[in-house]
Structure formats: structure tokens, C-alpha cells
# Entry
Amino acid sequence: MKITLRYRAFALFFSGFAAATVSAAHWPQYRGPNASGLDSSAALPTKWDATTGENIRWQTPIPGLAHASPIVWGDRVYVATAVAAGGKSDLKVGLYGDIAAAPNTEKNQWRLLALNRTTGKVLWTTLALDAVPRVARHTKATHCNSTPATDGRYIVAIFGSEGLFCFNAADGKLLWHKDLGPMDSGYFQVKTAQWGFASSPIIHEGKVVVLCDVQKDSFLATFDLATGRELWRTARGDVPTWSTPAIVESPGRKQIAVNGWHHTGGYDFATGKELWRLDGGGDIPVPTPLSAHGLIYFTSAHGRSRPMRAIRPDATGDITPENTDWKHSSIAWNHDRRGNYMQTPIIVGDLLFGCADTGLVTCFDAKTGDVRYSERLSKSSEGYTGSPVSDGKNLFFTSELGNVFVVPATSTFSVTATNSLGETCLSTPAISGGTLFFRTRDQLVAVGAKP
# Structure
């Protein structure tokens, strides 16, 4: 009996961390199952041509401007967007340090669309709200940065300061709406520089998890998926962040992992009680936490620090080290200057890959933190905002100019192919059953071998 119980605990532990063996038909949230960025159920093409149509299954125009990633459930692809009344909104891509917000005077229509995953045909489009945005956006951001999430029955989406919306996945009918207050996100040192909200909701066990790190009254909360009823809310005290939370399961504990600057940490999923916290890192936290190999991985950048670090999931209390070497029993490994600014890293097998906004890819041993390589994707100067994804064999890194670099998921660096999407692209692609779905400036593009 004891052996059986131990085996079950062992199996549960590694089922919660087995990012290396993800195989899924659905891609239900930002970065897919467990935010892993991985779908190993089928190989993806490494070469395509948006002009000739080689390995392009379909291209469907999508109105508006959004960085929300597509999600996939069964035979449908869902995508959110914000359509400006005045026509096409300006978007400034590239590597620059302008902190100013974009003009914010015209109405937007926030919409959710459903497409047939085989043909790209739009099945329905739902208008959620028509209003002037309550908060401005950054010149590189949009009024629809957050990726929706679905369990196949419901779809939830955060449309920035306009609130949390829930739709019927079958027909797009709006079921409920929660006003979360103004999502005043921007540079903490210049609070008038509003940049727009970007944390995405996630769904777990019939609950919606929402992280709202803003200038004032920040919180982490869960809501009942079916009704929108708030289940618990825990106040947070950190600078604005743009990170999506993650669910991490380990023996005797199910926690919500949250990235931050002064308050990276873990919260009990059932109650919202803080389990552990960590101070320090980059002062503009964006990447989502990852879990694998019995560890939780965090990275952030900007300011004086850009760490990449691995935390043990049984951490308790304040684990901030008292000295500068970042040694603590709950910190498995740490690199002070090898982290990422915008992109969430990806773990394939025993390797962790992180990409800086300049296109510098660093490969780590996920268990020990040892660096295997650190190389640039390209000699050209282009920014990288969307996060990498993988089919278990190759990594796909998308630049803001729409160039997709294919890199083997091994400890030896090479670029085996470079493919152009023909448009700028700042969102993270979705993967399902051997097809990549890219949200570009004006289209949703399905890349996969044609039947």
C-alpha cells in the first residue's frame, strides 16, 4: 500500500512538470498547455513561402490591431481583436526606448472571432464592446494584447481596462462581463506613460485566474468560469507587470506562480494565500513562469538586472537571499544577466531556451543552469516580442518583422531555415496537430503541410 501511494505521488509530481512530453490536440491559452509552448503530436514544416503558398494552408484577413495570440480547440481557431473606428491603427515596431503612449481618442470595437481550423473560414464574430479605451496603449502595443483562454465550452478574454468577458465557445454569445477597474499599466517611474494591459487569463478546474499588476490596487484573483462570481482576491504590491500566471502542481501543493519585480511568488490555488515570495529581478516583468523537472523557471529584464532562475516548488516564506550571490535552499540556480525581456522561454527535454528582444538565444541545461550556447539568430537588427514555440524537434522564433527562424531543439546552435510571413508579427503563434497559426498585422496564417 505504501509503495502504491508513493508511486501515485511520484506520478502526480512528474505529470505536473513533464513539459518535455506535451502532446495535445488543443492549444487552449497563451503558450498552449501549461504555458509550455510545446506540441509534439506532429512535426511542423520547417520551410514555407507566404508568396507562392508553399506549406500555407490558408490566410484569412483579421480586422483591427491586436497582439492576442490565437487559441485552438478541436476544429476551431479563436482570435480576439480591437478594431479602431478611424481605420488602421499605427504600430511602431523595432528596438527603441520611447516610453510615450499612442493617441487614445477614438472608439474601438473589441471582438472575438471563430474560424474553421481546416479552411480558415470565419464562422462567427461577436462584438463585446464599442467604446473609447479607458487607458492608453504603448506605440508598440495594442488595445487587445491579452490572449483568450478556453475549456472548449467557455472562452474568457481580458480586453484591458474594459474588463473580463466570457463567451459561449459554440456560438460566441456573451455570457457575462466583469469590470476589473482601470488597468493602468505603464512605466512605474513615469506613471503618465501608459502602455496597455497584457496579462492573459487562464482556466483551471472551472476557475478563471486573473493577474492584475497595475499602478494602484493590484491583485491576483479567481472567478467561477460559468457565472463570473469572484471566488477570492489577494492584494499585491508590485510595479505593473505584463506576465500571465501559471498553474504548478507538485506533491501536496497546487499553486499559482506569478512573475514580478519586488514580488515574484507562489499562491495557493484554492485560497489565494501567499506561499512564498522573492524580491529582485528586472523591473519590467513580462515572461510567464514555466514548470518542468521539479522546478519553476522565472525570468525578467530591464533596469539593473535580467535574471534567469529556477525555484523549487516547495518554497516557503520570503526566499530572497540576504547576500548578492543569490544562494538559497529554494533557489536551484540563477544567472543575473542572462534573462529575457519580452519573450517567455521554452523547455524541450532537458534544455531551456531563452531569447532576448535583440534575438540573442541562450540555451541552458534546465536542471543545472549550465549554459550550452549563446548565439544570435540573425546579423540584422530586428526586435523579438512573440515567444518561441516547438514541436519537440525544432524551435520557431518570430521577429517583429515577421521573419521566423527555425532552430534545432538541441544543445548545438544553428539556423536551419528562415521564413517570412510577409507582415509584422508581435504575437506568439499557436500549434495544433502539425499546423502553426500566426497572428500577423492583418491576417491569421495557418502554416502546415497541405493534405
Notes: DSSP finds one helix and 33 strands in the chain. The chain has one domain: 2-447.
